[in-house]
Each structure stands twice: as C-alpha cells, then as structure tokens.
Design goal:
Chain lengths: ~350, ~150, ~375
C-alpha cells in the first residue's frame, strides 16, 4: 500500500540519517583524538592523557566547551549569510559521504555516477567559505576567504584529473564497479606508474582542497589571525572543525576506494588460495585500515612541513600538478588502450 | 687615521671646535647650529668616510642639552664622537641627520619623545614610546611626574 | 594612542592592516601598521612603547651594583650578556682586574646563553612559518641549558649572575660534567634541526630571496649581529674589540654574502656550532681562584663618560654611562641591537607579500623589550 510505503521510506531515511550523523560525530571525535596523539608522537611529547582513560575524552571536553561558548555575531555582519555559511559547509561535507562503500554491500546510496557526485558536491564547499569570509565584514576574513577560494578552485582540477585516470581504466564512474574491478589486485599495483603518479597527485591536491597544512595559509594564525573563521565562535566554529575532519575522512576514503581497493582485500590475481585466506579478514577492517593509513599520512604532512605562501601554492598547482596530471591522463589512456596494465 | 689626524681633519672642517680626549674615543664638541654641514663632510669626505652611526643620544646638563653622536668608519675603522651643544632648553631644536644616516629616524623619534628636542627636516617626527597626548619629557632632569604619589 | 579616521584613509586600492600588538608568535608586543595593495606591502610603520618601562630613567636612581639587574629584562634571551656589559663598564672605569676563574665562567655561561637564544630563535622561526615540530626539538636542548642555569645561577631566565668584579657565587662542583653532557646532547641532536628545517624545500622557498638587505643598507641602518653578518658585514664585537678574555680564544666569525633571509638563517645555525667550539676550549681547564675582585661597597665611578660594547645574540649592545662622580649614573643609555635592526624592516619589506613579512621578522629575530627598554 502506498501509505505504508511512503512511511516506511521516511522512517528508513530518518534512521539512516541518525545513524550516519552519530557515526560521523564519533568519527570526528576519533580523528581529533588521533590527530593530537599523532602530533604528540611526532613532537616527542605525550599528548592528551588526563581526561578519560589515556585522554580519550579530551575531545568530548573540548566540544562541550565550544558548545557553551557565546556565539557572537558581529554588528556589521550580514546576519543571514553569516549563519548560513557553516550550514552549507557541513552539509556538503556530509553529502559527500553518501556513495562511499564502507564494507561489502554496505553503502548508503549506490549511485552510478559516484565519482562525479563526490567531486561536484565537495566543490560546493567553496560557496560556504566565501560566504563566511565576506559576511563577517572583517578585513582578515575577507583576505582569508579569497585566498581559500582561489586555492580550492585550482586544486579541484588536479583532483578531477587524477580521478579520471582510474575511471578510464575501469570504464565506470560508479564506486561499486571500481571496487569490484580491483578483485584481482588494487589499481595502484595493477596500474603501476601512471596510477602511482595519479595517487601522489591526488593526495597532495586533496590536502590542499581540505585546507590542511602545508596548505593551510587560510587559517594561518601567525599571519592573519584565523582567516575566514575569525569571527565565528561556539557551535558554528565547532561545525567548521567537524566539517574539516569529515572532509579529511571523505578524501581519504575516496583515495582508499579508488586507488587502494576500498573494502576489497589484498588479492594477487591468480593466487586463489592466498585470495581466499585474505577474504577471511572482514571487508570493513580492510576499508578502515586503508582509510586510516591515508589519514595518518595526511596528518604527518601537517606536523612536518612549514606553510607555503599563496603564490607558491598556486604556482605548485598551475605549473606543476596540472601539467603532470594532464600528461598522466594521456599515459593512462594509452595504457588502457594497449592493455599494458596488469 | 689616528686621533691626531682626526683632530687635524676636523679642525679643517670646523675651526671653532673643542676637543675632549679624556675618554677612550676622541670627542669633538660643536654648537648645534653648525651640525648639518659638519656631518655631511664627515660622511662624504673619502679619508674620513664615517658611514656608521652606531649610537645617538642626548644628555641633559640642566643648563644645556648635549646631543651625542657616535660615528665609526667601516672602511678606515676609526671612531669619533661628535657632541652638539644645544643651549636653548625651553625649545630645543636641531637638524635631523636622517638624510645622512637612515638609522637616525627612530633614534631621533626616541629623543624627541623623551627629551623634547625637535628635529628639523625629519620625515615623520612622532612620539615613539609614550602616548600621543603625554605631557612632559621624562628623561629631563626637571621632569615632575604627576602620576607619582609621595608617601 | 588615539587612532582617528585619518589613519585609514589611503590611496586608491590600499588598505591598512594592523599586525599586533598581540602576536601569536613569540616576538613580543610590536605593532606594525602595514599598508597593503592586495597582498603586496607598500609601507610598514612600527609603533612601539607597549612595554616601555623607562629602564634608562630608573637607572639614574640606582647604584652601580643595582642597575645591571634591570638589563636582564631588556633582551631576556641574552640576559647574562646584558649583565656582563653593565659589569664591564664599571670594571673598565675603575680598572678592576677580573680573576681568571670568573672570566672563564663568564664566557662559558655567556656562550651557553647564546646557544639557548639561537635555539629559541630556531623554534619560533619554524613556528612562524607554520612548521610546529621544530619548536619541540629545539626546546628539548634549551630545557637542558636552562636547567644548568637553574642549578648554577639560581634562575632560568633572568639570572643576575655577573656583577662588577666577577660573578656572584661559585658554580657547583658538577658544572663541568653537566655542561659537557649538555654539549654532547646538543651535538648529537643537531642533525635533526638540519633534517627538519634546513633541508626542507618548502622552508627554503619561503626564505630564499626574501628580504634582501645589502651591505650598504646594513651599515646605513646600523644593523649588527647575525642580521648584518648575513649581508657580508664583519661586525663581531668579540673579534673587533675583544673583551673579558675573548682575545685568547679561537673561533670563526660566520659571515655570508647571501643578504637574504636564508643567509640570516644559515649564519645563526653556524654560530651555534661556533659557540660550542668556544665552550669546548674552556670547559676542561677552568682555572681555580677567586670568583670576584674586591671592590668598594659603594661604587662611585670617576667623572667622565664610558662606553662598553658586547656581542649579544642579536648584535652589538652598547652601554653608555655619563658619570658625575656620584653613586648612580647621571645618564645611562643602552644602544640596543634590536632597535637598529627594526629600523631596517620598513626598508626591507617594501614590495614583498604578507607571508614574506613574517619570514623577514622571523629571521631578523627581534626582541621587543630590548627596543622599548
């Protein structure tokens, strides 16, 4: 009956939405804790170890503190846009989680244009950032937002081109198909050189896309005190932080899915016995293991390198990454036509 | 150049100079009105070539103010102290040497701030350390601080 | 200061941005008014006075034993060397002979201070440019040096250890072994500094060709210390006008002709190794004997003027005392190295970007309390 059908769909949507939100909040907490412990490990110190067992509740304490802060809106700010901006940023971050496959058959929305969907939804975050910077009516926020807009728009090109190289090899935009095609080996091994180049370009470009160091001059507090989120406090600021961690997860998950096989265990084409043993490890463990590995690499960047200047950053994209990506796409196409991949 | 040669050179530039040789550097005392031409010659004349002004300050001697310039030549490695005597303590003023040595800009701002000496032809004379509306010049000997409380 | 509307009316397209006085980096309270055209700097104007404590005026009412203590607060990273300058003026004017043990210990403590100061510079240079990790590596060694200061001189930062005549109290019996231990730790870990910052391409690109200070400009602005030595100017006071036993030691003056921020960085890194070399020459044979020469209880300098210069970690500190024969200085002027280095910044920074201004400030290494006194 139609009535039941609609009610059932709505209930399903609400449950899935709640589960997803809870999962992502917990994930953001976990990533925040991981970041602080990784930072401490690299800086020869201990990191949070007092609040909760081994400091696990530190992030909870910080979030509670942020929630209780007074969220001031500057007088001269455009109130509607000022309040809308964090909403847009976190919405686009959450939307991008939809097509990602966490385990075998465990996907929120199996859309047949998964790669294109993720790429376009994450571009919409630029709107939110520019809105935040402009509506704060503050010189520093405006400079920060303009820098950020230029940065994100430039680096999307490299991300798109490196994703295209896998799409060319697989022949499909759907994330499920891409993962299935790695059943006889991950693309990073099958596609050897061009895919490795694409992987490296993807990791660098997505670090720039999510405004993490060494590309975080948007938030360079030594230079311009906070960039586009200078005027935000309390819950809205917490939304910016959460959006950053969720973006980090999405970008790493996409890299893991497309280049490292997603939930596909480590198979070597032809060795059926070995593949069978690998299948015993649950696919969700594979997925999260690969994602956390890439997150760890991206986190290490932050604590190792100093920051780039804006013109050096844009130079890096337009003079180095983009030409390399374009040539790489040609190489991959050649490889796909000639079947030089494994 | 030795101290004797410096004395001779200086006397050629400005005959009415008095010398004080009690300290470790040769000191030349001139009236404040004659400062700028003398300094220009000291900077440009090739045998002297004093291109390094390493200290510029003022001393309040109650009936006159004495501007002290420590000059050194990086090429010849000799040092000379030039003192310019300002006799007017109510409205002291002297030419600025900013156009000869750029390091004098902030130094002279400081001396204006703390002693009240006006520097003519200074690009942007302003109070450096104290607030714009501070009354008085603290490093003068006759300065009375109205914020001080006598116990 | 009362800011009016006229401060912000500028030419077409320019706007004024304030950097400071509260900085997230460790320079101190300096306010820079920067006129920007987009990202390019058109003019920089420093505004000082946020930490002006009238040290020169206060010195006029203190005795010759007391006035040195205020100088610890001036350039607090070279506190020992500042105290040394004040002590040397008195010793020079009264012609007091400092015992050999005191001289040796003074030099060792002074050079340890220099290493500590350069380590903090290294930490904050990395921090300013966005690399957070070198901060912790450098502070590991600085903590070791501070603990030696704590054990022997009584305090970690403002020690007041050097007095006219010598030093205040003798060092502990394990001073020699502790200093050797710290030097060994420093030399073992020095390669980490090179790996994390010196060899880093991003760091090099931030600093190379940024903030050119030519040799003529360095002389004209009165710059001294590593800032001027990186422009090819030979100005180490320990070599040119040696004081307090430096004439007997072998060390190199590190000069570079790069003139940019990268050269200033390299000069300071090399200076740390030179300081280690100086300490190693002295640490094994500190002479026995008195630690302080006998001076009168109330020190009165003869009438006249005295100037003493020392090489702090940042350049030439000059103490100029005008004495009228009394127990306090009549006029006490401190020629501070950071004051002159700061006056060069508006000239150097013109035409660069905001990020470059941060890099320039990071490598010129200012300490604002020294400027404001």
């Amino acid at each position: 009956m139609i009535g039941n059908g609609i009610l059932l769909t709505i209930t399903e949507l609400v449950i899935v939405g709640l589960v997803l939100l809870v999962f992502l909040i917990l994930l953001a907490f976990f990533l925040g804790y991981m970041e602080r412990k990784v930072a401490a490990f690299m800086e020869i110190r201990l990191g949070p170890n007092r609040v909760g067992p081994k400091g696990t509740l530190q992030i909870v304490a910080d979030t509670v503190k942020l929630l209780f802060k007074e969220g001031l809106t500057p007088d001269a700010a455009d109130k509607f846009l000022f309040n809308l901006a964090p909403g847009i940023i976190i919405t686009t971050a959450l939307l991008a989680v939809a097509p990602i496959a966490f385990a075998k058959g465990f996907q929120i929305w199996d859309i047949n244009i998964g790669v294109l969907y993720i790429s376009s939804v994450s571009s919409m975050a630029v709107i939110g950032i520019l809105m935040a910077g402009w509506s704060s009516s503050n010189k520093y926020s405006l400079i920060g937002a303009m820098r950020c807009g230029a940065q994100i728009v430039s680096y999307e090109l490299s991300i798109g081109l490196s994703l295209v190289s896998i799409v060319v090899l697989t022949g499909s935009l759907s994330l499920n198909d891409i993962v299935e095609s790695q059943a006889n080996g991950w693309w990073i091994f099958k596609g050897h050189i061009p895919v490795m180049i694409a992987f490296v370009v993807f990791v660098i470009a997505s670090t720039a896309e999510i405004n993490r160091a060494p590309f975080d001059l948007v938030e360079a507090d030594q230079e311009l005190t906070g960039g586009f989120n200078t005027e935000y406090a309390g819950m809205k600021f917490a939304m910016f932080l959460m959006a950053e961690y969720i973006n980090l997860f999405v970008v790493s998950a996409v890299a893991a899915t497309i280049f490292l096989g997603g939930w596909m265990p480590f198979h070597i084409g032809g060795l059926t016995g070995f593949n069978h043993i690998m299948d015993y490890i649950p696919s969700s463990v594979w997925f999260f293991g690969k994602t956390l590995f890439i997150i760890f690499i991206i986190m290490q960047f932050r604590w190792t390198f100093p920051r780039l200047r804006i013109d050096q950053l844009l130079n890096l994209e337009w003079k180095y990454l983009l030409p390399i990506s374009m040539v790489n796409v040609l190489l991959v196409t050649l490889m796909a036509i000639m079947s030089w991949h494994l | 150049m030795t101290k004797e040669e410096l004395k001779d050179s200086f006397t050629q530039i400005f005959p009415a100079v008095t010398f004080d040789e009690s300290g470790e550097f040769l000191t030349a005392i001139i009236p404040s009105e004659e400062l700028l031409p003398v300094m220009k010659v000291l900077r440009t004349k090739p045998e002297l070539y004093f291109d390094y002004l390493f200290c510029e300050t003022c001393v309040d001697w109650k009936d006159h103010l004495m501007m002290v310039y420590f000059l050194n030549s990086r090429t010849h490695n000799h040092t000379l102290v030039v003192k310019a005597k300002i006799t007017d303590t109510i409205n002291p003023q002297i030419e600025s040497v900013f156009h000869i040595w750029p390091t004098a800009e902030l130094n002279e701002d400081e001396i204006f701030d703390l002693f009240g000496v006006k520097f003519l032809n200074h690009p942007n004379l302003r109070r450096l350390f104290l607030e714009e509306d501070w009354v008085g010049f603290p490093l003068r000997k006759n300065y009375v601080d109205e914020h001080m409380i006598e116990l | 200061m009362i800011l009016g509307e006229e401060d912000y009316i500028t030419e077409e397209g320019e706007f004024v941005v304030n950097m400071g006085p509260q900085h997230p980096s460790t320079h101190g309270v300096l306010r820079l008014k920067v006129w920007l055209d987009g990202e390019t700097i058109k003019k920089v104007e420093p505004h000082l006075g946020y930490i002006h404590r009238s040290i020169e005026k206060m010195s006029e009412s203190l005795s010759y034993r007391q006035y040195g203590y205020l100088t610890s607060r001036m350039d607090y990273l070279s506190a020992h060397i500042n105290n040394l300058a004040c002590a040397l003026v008195v010793e020079k004017s009264l012609q007091v002979e400092v015992p050999a043990r005191a001289q040796a210990i003074r030099i060792i403590i002074g050079e340890l201070t220099r290493i500590g100061s350069h380590l903090l510079w290294f930490a904050s240079a990395g921090l300013d440019l966005g690399g957070v990790t070198p901060f912790f590596y450098a502070f590991r060694e600085r903590e070791a040096i501070n603990s030696i200061m704590d054990e022997n001189c009584g305090a970690r930062l403002t020690q007041n250890f050097m007095v006219p005549g010598g030093i205040v109290y003798d060092v502990r019996p394990d001073f020699q072994s502790r200093v050797k231990e710290v030097l060994k730790q420093f030399k073992d870990n020095f390669h980490e500094y090179n790996e994390i910052l010196t060899g880093n391409v991003i760091f090099q690109n931030r600093l190379k060709d940024v903030g050119i200070l030519t040799k003529e400009d360095a002389i004209a602005f009165g710059c001294t210390g590593p800032t001027a030595r990186a422009s090819g100017l030979s100005c180490d006071i320990r070599k040119m006008y040696p004081y307090d036993g430096y004439e007997k030691l072998q060390f190199d003056e590190v000069i570079s002709t790069g003139c940019d921020s990268w050269a200033r960085y390299e000069v300071r890194m090399a200076e740390m190794l030179q300081s280690v070399r100086i300490i190693e020459q002295l640490i094994d044979n500190i002479p026995e004997g008195d630690i302080v020469a006998k001076t009168k209880n109330v020190i009165k300098l003869p009438k006249g003027e005295f100037y003493q210069r020392v090489e702090t970690a940042r350049g030439e500190l000059g103490v100029y005392i005008v004495s009228d024969g009394g127990a306090s200085p009549y006029r006490c002027k401190y020629r501070s190295p950071n004051f002159a280095n700061l006056s060069a910044i508006p000239h150097i920074a013109r035409g660069y970007k905001i990020g470059d201004l941060i890099a320039i400030m990071a490598t010129i290494d200012l300490i604002i309390p020294d400027i404001d006194r």
